[in-house]
Amino acid sequence: MPRTDRARRARALEELDRYARMNVRHSVEQYSREGTLHDKALALFDDQDAWSAPWVPQDFDLGRAHEHPVFTEVFSPAQRLAWNHLQWGLDYSIVGRGELQIIVINKHAVKAFADVLPSMIELEERESFEEVDHFAAFRTVIEALRRRYLPGRREALYAESPSGMRSEASNKVFRHVIGLMGRATLGNHFPALFFLARGLKTHNFKPFENAIAGFEEAPKGIREISHLHRLDESRHMATSLWIARLANEVLDEASFESRTLVRAAAQAAWPRGRMAESRIGYWRTVLAEAPIFQDVPRPLRAELLAFVAANTEQGLRVLHARQEGLTRQANKRIVEECGLPPHLKRCFVEALRADPATAPLVDAVELPAAA
User: Could you tell me the pTM of the whole model?
Assistant: First the structure.
């Protein structure tokens, strides 16, 4: 290896090591000071007013149900409030499903660092601890939503997984397979590609979570869960940026430069149509099963669902107003700074731009023209 390459690799190792140690320290300090998200979720319903206040701003609903006459003229105040609480359940069930994927694939993506950068393994273990805590907190609140609004269901209502397979049972196997195959086939490129995708997904929800944390109408416990989660996710965003940018500098595993594999990875992370289907399917179940909505005539519920479905499909073709700043700029930065070879980076971006629902995620990205 030329001297300049060795010096660049040494600097990258030093940067990543310093970052990993700092991030673990900040996480430990935060949890020692604030406690876990799960603790906050368990204490949430000690507040007698938790069910009497909205949990999320009204504009979170991509289906714009609040604009339809059934919502404004037929729904009672209690039904409109239930819809708002269930919107929280939709958003955080999507986030929670994604974090279950991350816990497993993270481990495979950082294994290559075990011999060259042990602090990165420690960081992955700390992030996995956080993700387990996050899911436990979300599951606690989503189960409370089931007991209150869908008591006839045997299991809490979760949206379909936003990546991988549709069913959680299948995903338990799928995420291990992806991790094993990714490292075996993509080598150096696997950590960079995985953390690039992870970063884009994290950036997507961050503006909404910031809004919940500052939503003064919401119960204190709801705001605290979002606030502590966004602190963790801010660190995770930084981790994704650092590893996507520097992994190729410090790893020397053989890399298979396959555009086909990169396209397949993008499609596995964002299955075509899944973002819309997961949201529409969630509201279909709510309107069909939740007792609180059953006094609304079935044709009116069907009319509302059709309106929600059409607006959800359309809403995913542009960034939400809350995403215009943070999401657009964070996505632009992580893609443009990613250490993947230019042709693979371009292939990844083109795969996202081929689907109208994911094209907005990379609309600000500017890559050099192909040679």
Answer: 0.92
